[in-house]
Specification:
Layout lengths: L3 H19 L6 E11 L3 E4 L4 E4 L3 E7 L6 E11 L2 E9 L3 E13 L3 E11 L2 E11 L10 E11 L5 E3 L4 E7 L2 E7 L10 E10 L4 E9 L2 H4 L3 E10 L2 E7 L5 E8 L2
Antiparallel strand pairs: 1-2, 1-3, 1-9, 3-4, 4-5, 5-6, 6-7, 7-8, 8-9, 10-11, 10-12, 10-18, 12-13, 13-14, 14-15, 15-16, 16-17, 17-18
């Protein structure tokens, strides 16, 4: 009997370890990029600030371009498959509507998680990208939580004249006290479609007012670290309208539909 005890203990430990390894990865949360390394024969450290948010179904990330303040962003659905995170990307700053996928090897860390993506193509060269993230979200629940696509954007001036923007595509995500917005719009002068972004923290005052503070944005002078107050109306749980009073006395109005 004494000889059997070590064998039973070893079997129990192996079973526990096997069960732990088979547990699904839970990556839901808000993450700030702390370090990115690209490897192609040698390691190259990338200087980049990026926020990434996972809901139970969607992922969105945003960061400034390396050469300017315009946006590098993407939005995707995702799933956990064989211990890896598979992101099914459907819209990005560089390509607009698209169908692509990224397979992430994910390792949870004390402060957040580490992801590794192989065969990342940059200027016709393949790299292995390793990104380390810290978790920054705080557990909160608000009516704004979720992923949204803008359906209407308009500006109403002090005379009541309305200008409707029919070309901008914008997505927005709220989770655990943080948000990301990113859009692609038409530059009618240069005949190009650049992208803009912002991300930061938000708080709600009741169910009909919110204050956003952008920590990083294309519009550094007008937005970063400045409270952006919006009035909110929820016609139903899957849509909302936000209204912001501009400094010139006009109003910026945006309407969003929830992505399910």
């Amino acid at each position: 009997m004494k000889n059997l005890l070590p064998l039973l203990l070893a079997f129990f430990l192996v079973k526990c370890a096997s069960r732990k390894e088979s547990e699904p990865i839970n990556i839901v949360g808000v993450y700030s990029l702390m370090k990115q390394t690209l490897k192609n024969g040698k390691d190259s450290l990338v200087e980049k600030k990026q926020l990434k948010i996972y809901t139970d179904k969607y992922m969105m990330y945003a960061s400034p371009n390396p050469t300017d303040s315009l946006a590098n962003y993407g939005i995707a659905t995702y799933k956990i498959d064989d211990g890896k995170v598979v992101e099914n990307i459907f819209y990005t700053s560089g390509y607009g509507d698209r169908k692509d996928s990224a397979i992430l090897k994910v390792e949870k860390t004390v402060d957040g998680y580490k992801q590794v993506i192989e065969d990342v193509v940059i200027e016709n060269k393949k790299y292995t990208s390793t990104e380390e993230y810290d978790s920054v979200g705080k557990a909160t629940n608000t009516p704004l939580d979720g992923v949204w696509k803008q359906t209407t954007r308009m500006h109403v001036d002090t005379k009541g004249d309305t200008l409707v923007d029919e070309v901008q595509v914008q997505f927005k995500i709220y989770k655990d006290g943080y948000f990301i917005w990113a859009n692609t719009y038409e530059d009618s002068v240069l005949k190009k479609y650049p992208s803009a972004f912002g991300y930061g923290t938000f708080e709600m005052d009741g169910n009909n007012k919110a204050t956003e503070i952008n920590l990083n944005s294309t519009y550094a002078v007008s937005l970063i670290s400045k409270p952006y107050e919006i009035d909110i109306e929820f016609p139903d749980k899957d849509s909302y309208k936000q209204t912001h009073l501009n400094t010139d006395g006009g109003k910026s109005i945006e309407v969003y539909q929830r992505l399910k």
